[in-house]
Amino acid sequence: MARRDGARHTDARRIGVLGGTFDPVHIGHLRSAVEVAEVLLLDELRLIPSARPPHRSAPQVSAMDRLAMVELALAGAAVLQVDDRELKRDKPSYSIDTLESLRAELADDDQLLLILGWDAFCGLPGWQRWDELLEHCHILVLQRPDADSEAPEALRNLLAARSVSDPSALSGPSGQIAFIWQTPLAVSATQIRALLASGKSARFLVPDAVLAYIHAHGLYRGAN
Ligand code: ATP
């Protein structure tokens, strides 16, 4: 594929993966995704709604509704794509399974970037087969400029061995860790669910099409 950066002289594609419950998708997710896609010159950034997240309580609305909202939010955003593979799987959504299945569809030299917030990254040692993740992807950690960035002991050797200082210099299909500094918008799905449950407006926190869907389907009206 023709490159836009001049720095990567390769036909390999660079594909980012952002998982989440997206219950509902909101402008925090979307702005973050756009910024990462632009800074890293991603060919594609896939938002992957999770079915049964192993690390948290069940989403409040159905997988079908969460998927429909992500689809509405991304309409017309060419680089941002929705990927529904975790919703089709009849098992918990382990990232390692998702990455293996994505990898099986890509060319050998395509780059796969798993995008994680710092907190999620610090919890990595609790993930299923976490030590195999870097066989399939790079890890791009979104770091808040104000974050306390002391990594847990279990990750120190990995960081020392695999970190690269410049995220745009990630090379090869997988195996490295890079950090990108980003100030997240102060928005969360929890906050949006609470607003809606108490009859308040969530306008401008989610795309208008998502809000219309929420109202049309009577979502998030009960207690959260
Ligand atoms: P909840 O409030 O229900 O926990 P959430 O708003 O954190 O949900 P998730 O679907 O859990 O949304 O998040 C998916 C991914 O998006 C996670 O990696 C999370 O860190 C990231 N994310 C969530 N909110 C923001 C935000 N405001 N800005 C940037 N990234 C965000």
Topology, element by element:
Blueprint: E1 14-20, H1 27-39, E2 44-49, H2 63-74, E3 80-82, H3 85-88, H4 95-103, E4 111-117, H5 118-122, H6 133-136, E5 138-143, H7 153-162, E6 177-181, H8 189-197, H9 208-216
Parallel strand pairs: 1-2, 1-4, 2-3, 4-5, 5-6
Helix pairs in contact: 2-9
The structure holds adenosine-5'-triphosphate (ATP).
EC number: 2.7.7.18
Pathway: Cofactor biosynthesis; NAD(+) biosynthesis; deamido-NAD(+) from nicotinate D-ribonucleotide: step 1/1
Protein name: Probable nicotinate-nucleotide adenylyltransferase
Quick summary of this structure?
The protein has 224 residues and is an alpha/beta fold. The protein has helices at residues 27-39, 63-74, 85-88, 95-103, 118-122, 133-136, 153-162, 189-197, 208-216, and strands at 14-20, 44-49, 80-82, 111-117, 138-143, 177-181. It has a single domain (14-185), classed as HUPs (Rossmann fold), CATH 3.40.50.
How would you explain this protein's 3D organization?
With 224 residues, this protein is α/β, with parallel strands linked by helices. The chain has one domain: 3-Layer(aba) Sandwich (Rossmann fold). 33% of the residues lie in helices and 15% in strands. It is built from 9 helices and 6 strands. It has helices at residues 27-39, 63-74, 85-88, 95-103, 118-122, 133-136, 153-162, 189-197, 208-216; strands at 14-20, 44-49, 80-82, 111-117, 138-143, 177-181. A 6-stranded parallel β-sheet has the order 3-2-1-4-5-6, sandwiched between helices. α2 (63-74) runs antiparallel to α9 (208-216). The longest helix has 13 residues, at 27-39. It is globular. Residues 2-6 have low confidence and may be disordered. Adenosine-5'-triphosphate binds at residues 20-23, 28-29, 32, 117, 120, 184-185, 187-190.
